[in-house]
Amino acid sequence: MNHSNPSTSSEGHTAPTTRRTGRFRLGIAGLLLTAVLVIVIYSATSTVQSEGNGMEYLDRLRALEQAGPQLEVGSEAEKRAVERFQGLLSDFKAPDFADRVTEVYAEDAFFNDTLKTVQGVEHIREYLVESGEAIDKGEVEFVDLVADHGNYYFRWVMTIRFKKLANGEDKRSIGMTHVRFNAQGRVVLHQDYWDSSAGLFEHVPALGWVLRRAKSRL
Q1: Which residue of 5, 75, 110, 134 has the fewest CB atoms within a 10 Å radius of its CB?
Q2: Stretch 108-114: mean pLDDT, rounded?
Protein backbone atom coordinates (compact mmCIF):
# COMPACT_ATOMS: atom_id res chain seq x y z
CA MET A 1 0.00 0.00 0.00
CA ASN A 2 1.27 3.49 -0.89
CA HIS A 3 1.77 5.65 2.22
CA SER A 4 3.32 8.65 0.44
CA ASN A 5 2.54 12.19 1.66
CA PRO A 6 -0.72 13.29 -0.04
CA SER A 7 0.46 16.89 -0.27
CA THR A 8 3.38 15.94 -2.53
CA SER A 9 3.25 14.20 -5.92
CA SER A 10 5.64 11.43 -7.02
CA GLU A 11 7.78 14.05 -8.81
CA GLY A 12 8.16 16.01 -5.57
CA HIS A 13 5.92 18.92 -6.61
CA THR A 14 3.74 20.68 -4.05
CA ALA A 15 0.07 19.78 -4.33
CA PRO A 16 -2.50 22.40 -5.34
CA THR A 17 -3.83 22.77 -1.79
CA THR A 18 -0.42 23.95 -0.56
CA ARG A 19 -0.09 26.41 -3.44
CA ARG A 20 -3.49 27.89 -2.67
CA THR A 21 -2.46 28.35 0.95
CA GLY A 22 0.69 30.12 -0.21
CA ARG A 23 -1.31 32.49 -2.38
CA PHE A 24 -3.68 33.18 0.50
CA ARG A 25 -0.79 34.03 2.80
CA LEU A 26 0.71 36.33 0.16
CA GLY A 27 -2.64 38.06 -0.20
CA ILE A 28 -2.87 38.71 3.54
CA ALA A 29 0.71 39.98 3.59
CA GLY A 30 -0.02 42.28 0.66
CA LEU A 31 -3.09 43.72 2.35
CA LEU A 32 -1.18 44.31 5.57
CA LEU A 33 1.62 46.01 3.65
CA THR A 34 -0.94 48.18 1.87
CA ALA A 35 -2.43 49.28 5.18
CA VAL A 36 0.98 50.14 6.62
CA LEU A 37 2.05 52.12 3.55
CA VAL A 38 -1.22 54.04 3.40
CA ILE A 39 -0.87 55.01 7.07
CA VAL A 40 2.75 56.09 6.60
CA ILE A 41 2.05 58.20 3.51
CA TYR A 42 -1.12 59.65 4.96
CA SER A 43 0.63 60.64 8.17
CA ALA A 44 3.64 62.10 6.36
CA THR A 45 1.54 64.38 4.15
CA SER A 46 -0.94 65.45 6.81
CA THR A 47 -0.92 68.96 8.25
CA VAL A 48 -4.30 69.19 9.95
CA GLN A 49 -5.61 65.79 10.88
CA SER A 50 -9.07 65.20 12.29
CA GLU A 51 -9.99 61.77 13.58
CA GLY A 52 -13.30 60.27 12.54
CA ASN A 53 -15.12 57.51 10.75
CA GLY A 54 -17.58 59.53 8.68
CA MET A 55 -20.03 60.17 11.48
CA GLU A 56 -19.03 63.84 11.65
CA TYR A 57 -20.38 64.27 8.14
CA LEU A 58 -23.73 62.69 9.02
CA ASP A 59 -24.00 64.64 12.26
CA ARG A 60 -23.25 67.93 10.51
CA LEU A 61 -25.65 67.10 7.67
CA ARG A 62 -28.52 66.32 10.05
CA ALA A 63 -28.02 69.63 11.86
CA LEU A 64 -27.95 71.58 8.60
CA GLU A 65 -30.99 69.80 7.21
CA GLN A 66 -32.99 70.78 10.30
CA ALA A 67 -32.34 74.43 9.44
CA GLY A 68 -33.63 73.85 5.92
CA PRO A 69 -32.39 75.29 2.58
CA GLN A 70 -30.61 78.62 2.95
CA LEU A 71 -30.71 79.77 -0.68
CA GLU A 72 -33.76 80.25 -2.82
CA VAL A 73 -33.85 77.89 -5.79
CA GLY A 74 -33.11 79.74 -9.00
CA SER A 75 -32.05 82.93 -7.24
CA GLU A 76 -29.04 85.04 -8.16
CA ALA A 77 -27.52 84.23 -4.76
CA GLU A 78 -27.73 80.50 -5.50
CA LYS A 79 -26.26 80.98 -8.96
CA ARG A 80 -23.31 82.99 -7.61
CA ALA A 81 -22.64 80.43 -4.84
CA VAL A 82 -22.52 77.57 -7.34
CA GLU A 83 -20.29 79.52 -9.72
CA ARG A 84 -17.83 80.45 -6.94
CA PHE A 85 -17.54 76.84 -5.82
CA GLN A 86 -17.06 75.47 -9.34
CA GLY A 87 -14.63 78.26 -10.22
CA LEU A 88 -12.44 77.51 -7.21
CA LEU A 89 -12.03 73.81 -7.93
CA SER A 90 -11.71 74.26 -11.68
CA ASP A 91 -8.05 75.21 -11.24
CA PHE A 92 -5.99 74.38 -8.14
CA LYS A 93 -3.02 76.29 -9.61
CA ALA A 94 -4.77 79.64 -10.00
CA PRO A 95 -2.60 82.53 -8.64
CA ASP A 96 -5.36 83.69 -6.28
CA PHE A 97 -6.41 80.19 -5.21
CA ALA A 98 -5.73 80.72 -1.50
CA ASP A 99 -7.75 83.93 -1.36
CA ARG A 100 -10.65 82.33 -3.22
CA VAL A 101 -10.83 79.48 -0.68
CA THR A 102 -11.75 81.98 2.04
CA GLU A 103 -14.42 83.45 -0.23
CA VAL A 104 -15.99 80.03 -0.93
CA TYR A 105 -15.98 78.33 2.50
CA ALA A 106 -17.72 79.48 5.66
CA GLU A 107 -15.79 80.12 8.87
CA ASP A 108 -16.91 76.82 10.46
CA ALA A 109 -17.13 74.75 7.26
CA PHE A 110 -16.84 70.96 7.30
CA PHE A 111 -14.63 69.40 4.59
CA ASN A 112 -13.88 65.77 3.72
CA ASP A 113 -12.24 64.63 0.47
CA THR A 114 -12.06 60.90 1.46
CA LEU A 115 -8.40 61.38 2.40
CA LYS A 116 -8.95 63.47 5.50
CA THR A 117 -11.47 65.51 7.44
CA VAL A 118 -10.78 69.21 7.97
CA GLN A 119 -12.93 71.76 9.80
CA GLY A 120 -12.74 75.52 9.63
CA VAL A 121 -11.91 77.74 6.66
CA GLU A 122 -8.32 78.41 7.76
CA HIS A 123 -7.53 74.70 8.01
CA ILE A 124 -9.29 74.01 4.72
CA ARG A 125 -7.24 76.71 3.00
CA GLU A 126 -4.00 75.34 4.47
CA TYR A 127 -4.84 71.82 3.32
CA LEU A 128 -5.94 72.77 -0.20
CA VAL A 129 -2.96 75.07 -0.78
CA GLU A 130 -0.56 72.37 0.38
CA SER A 131 -2.27 69.88 -1.92
CA GLY A 132 -1.91 72.30 -4.82
CA GLU A 133 1.80 72.68 -4.16
CA ALA A 134 2.29 68.93 -4.67
CA ILE A 135 0.98 69.00 -8.25
CA ASP A 136 1.83 70.66 -11.54
CA LYS A 137 -1.77 70.59 -12.70
CA GLY A 138 -5.12 70.17 -10.99
CA GLU A 139 -8.35 70.82 -12.85
CA VAL A 140 -11.94 69.75 -12.23
CA GLU A 141 -14.48 69.62 -15.03
CA PHE A 142 -18.03 69.71 -13.70
CA VAL A 143 -20.31 67.39 -15.66
CA ASP A 144 -23.67 68.09 -14.05
CA LEU A 145 -25.40 69.32 -10.91
CA VAL A 146 -28.46 68.11 -9.02
CA ALA A 147 -30.04 70.28 -6.31
CA ASP A 148 -32.57 68.99 -3.79
CA HIS A 149 -33.80 70.73 -0.61
CA GLY A 150 -30.56 72.59 0.01
CA ASN A 151 -28.31 69.70 -1.03
CA TYR A 152 -26.14 70.19 -4.12
CA TYR A 153 -24.51 67.22 -5.81
CA PHE A 154 -21.72 68.06 -8.26
CA ARG A 155 -20.53 65.27 -10.59
CA TRP A 156 -17.05 65.88 -11.96
CA VAL A 157 -13.97 64.60 -13.79
CA MET A 158 -10.61 65.59 -12.31
CA THR A 159 -7.38 65.85 -14.26
CA ILE A 160 -4.24 65.92 -12.17
CA ARG A 161 -0.51 65.88 -12.87
CA PHE A 162 1.72 65.03 -9.93
CA LYS A 163 5.18 66.53 -9.55
CA LYS A 164 6.77 63.30 -8.34
CA LEU A 165 4.32 60.57 -9.32
CA ALA A 166 3.06 58.84 -12.47
CA ASN A 167 6.05 60.06 -14.51
CA GLY A 168 4.54 63.50 -14.91
CA GLU A 169 1.57 62.20 -16.89
CA ASP A 170 -1.95 63.56 -16.68
CA LYS A 171 -4.23 61.26 -14.67
CA ARG A 172 -8.02 61.43 -14.64
CA SER A 173 -10.54 60.24 -12.09
CA ILE A 174 -14.26 60.66 -11.50
CA GLY A 175 -16.16 61.67 -8.42
CA MET A 176 -19.01 63.59 -6.86
CA THR A 177 -19.19 66.27 -4.17
CA HIS A 178 -22.10 66.92 -1.80
CA VAL A 179 -22.33 70.56 -0.81
CA ARG A 180 -24.57 72.71 1.37
CA PHE A 181 -24.44 76.52 1.41
CA ASN A 182 -25.30 78.98 4.16
CA ALA A 183 -27.48 82.07 3.68
CA GLN A 184 -24.44 84.04 2.48
CA GLY A 185 -23.76 81.47 -0.25
CA ARG A 186 -20.67 80.03 1.40
CA VAL A 187 -20.00 76.30 1.69
CA VAL A 188 -20.74 74.92 5.15
CA LEU A 189 -20.47 71.23 4.17
CA HIS A 190 -18.23 69.60 1.55
CA GLN A 191 -18.19 65.80 1.27
CA ASP A 192 -16.42 64.11 -1.64
CA TYR A 193 -17.27 60.67 -3.00
CA TRP A 194 -14.08 59.69 -4.78
CA ASP A 195 -11.97 56.56 -5.29
CA SER A 196 -8.76 57.91 -3.76
CA SER A 197 -6.97 54.57 -4.30
CA ALA A 198 -7.31 54.96 -8.09
CA GLY A 199 -6.99 58.73 -8.05
CA LEU A 200 -3.87 58.96 -5.89
CA PHE A 201 -2.43 55.92 -4.12
CA GLU A 202 -2.17 53.70 -7.20
CA HIS A 203 0.37 56.18 -8.59
CA VAL A 204 2.64 55.96 -5.53
CA PRO A 205 5.68 53.72 -6.23
CA ALA A 206 5.49 50.31 -4.50
CA LEU A 207 2.15 51.18 -2.92
CA GLY A 208 0.55 51.44 -6.35
CA TRP A 209 1.84 47.99 -7.28
CA VAL A 210 0.51 46.53 -4.03
CA LEU A 211 -2.93 48.09 -4.52
CA ARG A 212 -3.22 46.86 -8.11
CA ARG A 213 -2.02 43.41 -7.03
CA ALA A 214 -4.59 43.27 -4.23
CA LYS A 215 -7.40 44.40 -6.54
CA SER A 216 -6.52 41.72 -9.10
CA ARG A 217 -7.05 39.07 -6.41
CA LEU A 218 -10.50 40.23 -5.38
Answers
A1: 5
A2: 95
User: What is the average pLDDT score of the chain?
Assistant: 78
- Polymer length of the chain: 218
Residues 163-174 pLDDT 10s = 865 466 788 889
Quick check: 88 and 104 in contact, CB under 8 A?
Answer: yes
**pTM given for the model:** 0.70
**Phi-psi category of 149—alpha, beta or left, where left has phi over 0 and alpha has psi -120 to 50?**
left
Third-level CATH fold of 52-203: Nuclear Transport Factor 2; Chain: A, (3.10.450)
Residue type for position 5: N
Asked whether the beta carbons of 48 and 126 are under 8 A apart, the reply is yes
